[in-house]
Amino acid sequence: MKLPKLRLALLSYCFATLSPAEPAEVPPSTREATEWCDIWIAQADQAGLPRVLLIGDSITRGYYPEVANRLSGKAAVARLATSAFLSDPMFLKEVTLMLDSMSFDVIQFNNGMHGWQHGEDEYRQAFPEFLATIRKHAPHAKLIWANTTPLKESSPAKPSEVRPSDERIAAPNAIAAEFVTAQKIPTDDLNGLMAGHPEYHSDNIHFNDRGIALQADQVAAEIEKLLKP
User: Fold this and answer.
1) pLDDT by residue (tens digit) across 65-77?
2) How far apart, in whole angstroms, are the C-alpha atoms of residue 187 and residue 137?
3) Are 138 and 80 contacting, i.e. CB atoms less than 8 angstroms apart?
4) Is residue 159 part of a domain?
């Protein structure tokens, strides 16, 4: 499927200017200091290859180029990386805009490394709508859930603390597992791949070239399974 250059330009513009004002239902206290959204659509003007979309955050953005390289000639790989938390209305708008702009054959999706201002109950309530949005706007796509990666170093966070911890990463991972298992969606266990390996990190959250290469190998392998007839 071809995406005209004008349409691609409009898509980029829409993401850059999605919502300069705070929606009334999302108070500033639940926002991060910097909110961001990044998209990349490779081979947008070409047809003939299956299309793959990676939905996630900066971790996804980190391994995206290597995944695209590993799937070169087999699939055209796009990304939607964002800081928006699952229950933020802007998150579903970003996902919807991306899915309505192009058809995808395989979608790997993740959300869980942001939104420390929000609780696990809120995550549980929002996850079904996330799944339903993908199903509605990409009804023919094959899906993979990618769980959220661990930290290099972690100490338990008190309920009142707004910061990441492995315990707070494990909780949404477990919640997501309930829903994706029920819908028979396979899981790309990136958490298990990185757990216990601080040498793969470049800082407490992100990964170095070695860690990224291992993630890309696994992501590409999981996607290839679904690319096969």
Assistant:
1) 999 999 999 999 9
2) 21
3) no
4) yes
